[in-house]
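Issue 218. Parser rejects a valid record. Input:
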Amino acid sequence: MAQSKRETERKYAAPAADDISWPPDLTDVETVASMADRGIQDLDAVYYDTADLRLARSSATLRRRAGGTDAGWHLKLPLAGDDREEIQAPLSEEIPDALRDLVLSRTRGAPLRPVVRLRTTRSVHDLVDRQGGTLAELSLDTVRADSLLDGGGHAVWTEMEVELAERGGPALLDRIEKVLAEQGVDRAEAPSKAARALAETAPAVGGAQDPPPEVVPGSAGEHVYAYLRAQARALVELDPAVRRGTPDAVHRMRVTCRRLRGTLRSYRSVLDREATDPVRGELKWLASELGAERDHEVLADRLRRAFLELPGELLLGPVTARLTAWDAAQRAAARRRTLDALASPRYTALLERLHALTTRPPLRAKAARPPEKVMAKALAKEYDRLRRRMAPALELPPGPERDAAIHDARKAAKRLRYGAQAARPALGKPARRLGKRVKAVQKVSGDHHDAVVARDALRRLAVAAHTAGESAFTWGLLHGQERAAASAREEQLPGAWQRAARARPGKARP
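Output the parser choked on:
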């Protein structure tokens, strides 16, 4: 079974042996009392990637390593700053299925193959505090890299690496780096051994993706393209977390789908809808599949909190057991739906379409125009769409029709908010203010929708309890509370909408 850990490290370009003694003396670093020699390790690692190196281009690595204290398969995924997530699996001849699935959003289903072999001789020292605890690991690595690609070469270098232990903290890395700099040791240019090996043995490998030449700097097209590219990258990076059930990952991926859909819808004047509408349709499908799990998470958490707030004397019958059984059954079915979607050819095809969209954007003529006009006009249209939904929704009497109308207006508010997010770098404060005010509308209408959904679920649970001969009192009590909560949000919504209307873009009318 794969195991995960957070890895925080920095790499340095080790100077020649006559420039610095090894190991460098780091006992001047605050909290470092001594350095313990852990000897020499011989490591042999083969890195796997697609033929066009899709993992390397996304700053991820997958290797099979023998030797050392953690032989096995290692998948490393980038996190913020100096952090990476390392997911390990036992040593085997074939790539473990679990790791192959975790890189699918990056490989888009392309076959994995050996691309480079690294043989490393590692000298290791622990940086120890006064209590004898290890703060960090300092290693000097002599590396030989041999390309396994056709026409590839080989390279040899030496580098230094500092990896935090559990007792160390990020500030320790800064203190160590200051002392190393005083001794002539600089940060390495490559983010990882694999990246350096591929750069030096397979020079044709590209680095970060540059904007296509048709994207005019400073134009509306550039701003829309940058936002789409960031959201597409976020979707790819969230995929492993969703597969592993990381808290909030499904919610964040679903929101990313909605941001992509909303941007493709709002900026049709910039992007050719013949190319983007099919992508929007597939993003809607994925968001719907993820929605089953996310919606149940929200509903179950809401009901659990409501139960906890009730006095014990109001919990009549086996209500806790029924809620637990309902939660387990619904959660398992929703989880299966998420995983099935991510394992489907349809999802892989969507990843390919998003990749094509962000490498060859289907720009229209207006994409080359200034964003102050093009993007502001797009936001004005989205505002008008929201106004046309919100105004009649507020005039309807309470009931199912009004509930549905408020929910539809909420969807329009989301699109306007996401459109404003994309426009913030270009339009500045007006777009930020609009997004903030519309977010408040979305929050009130979202709370209203959650109460409506909870009310419906509680009615079904009450019917099931009554049919089984149990008391339905508690379910009815909570149903009444949710009805009151929905009514309270309906009263708040006109005020939130009026504040948003005062931030309307362009010439849109309230």
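Fixed in the parser; the record now loads. The CA atoms of residues 186 and 194 lie 19 Å apart.
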